[in-house]
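Usage

Read records sequentially. Each one opens with the input sequence:
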Amino acid sequence: MINEFRRARRRKAADTILVTDAMTERVVGRIGNLSESGMLLIANETLVDDALYQLQFALPGDKAQPETVEVGAHLLWMDRASAPGQAWIGLRFIAVAPECLVNLQKWIEAPGGHYE
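and closes with the structure output:
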């Protein structure tokens, strides 16, 4: 049996949260799960292994408008998904502005979340 240990709690994204490459302004996929330190991206665009990305996404919040989060991320691994043209991608956050980190923490800890 393998016991997996992650330092940060990962919340599954129940709704579709689209992720945009901030440099190209293209939607690259959607969030599978999210933590303070990284995310599982279900990508519909080809990304480069071991590359750095500037990504944006909007988290639903307690305000009328979603909270936009921008992160610098390092692509750690990728694996083909069963759906054609999709891949599972693991990203580690390397730069998160303090106000974005607060929004991430609020969303992760909000009631009603499911965790991995």
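Summary fields computed downstream for this record:
- The chain has one helix and seven strands.
- Residues 28 and 45 are 5 Å apart (CA to CA).
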